[in-house]
Amino acid sequence: MYKLLKINMSNKRLKLIVKIISILIYIITVPIIIFNMTLIVKSYIKPNETPSFFGYKNFIIVSKSMENTINKNDVIIIREVQKDEIHKDDIIAFFQNNEVITHRIVDIVEDNGVTKYLTKGDNNLHEDKDLVTYEQIEGKYQFKISGFGIILKILKNPITLIILIIILILNCFYGYNRKRKKEIRKQKREIYNKKRIEDG
Q: Which tens digits make up the pLDDT trace of 150-192?
């Protein structure tokens, strides 16, 4: 009796663990798939623009120029903003010399009637050589996810995306199959109980 109870308790615990893992898989994989698929589609439609998700973009930091505010391999989330939302001391991501740079605005100047931004990395000794125009700005820094850059590089890989979709499909199939077996067992129990009542 004790052994049977112990086995039942173990089965219940195992089922709970499987259920929690299944829920976690959905919570993690579905947003990643939607996010990455959106960015991939947008990058094909507009190859010359950085793809965004409802106005938000993410970048992996590859240099130490903003340490200790933002560190190498951090992922930063930036938001597309209007010109009047940009102020001194804001951290912005901007496109320059075929790369996206994330630095702080240290001054705002007027150059021949055009507003331009003087930028500098928090960890750099000197300001950036070239002024930045509003048209170059990808967005304003919102927050960072420390060290997530290494993981994001893997997640952005198309092969990883395919694997995630396969995991999601397999998880759906497993859930459906488990539910189906449960229904069959329930029906068998009902038939057995009905038969036993009729015989008794």
A: 877 777 677 777 777 787 788 778 777 777 877 887 777 777 7
Query: Who's near 58: CB < 8 A, 6+ residues apart?
Result: 75, 76, 77, 78, 152
Measured between its terminal Cα atoms, the distance across the chain in Å is 26
According to the model, what pLDDT value does residue 48 have? 66
The residue that leads in pLDDT, 101 or 111, is 101
Task: Name the residue ranges covered by the structural domains of the chain.
Answer: 1-51+148-176, 52-145
Domain 52-145 has CATH 2.10.109.10: yes
Distances (CA, A) of 7 to 17, 165, 181: 15, 34, 20
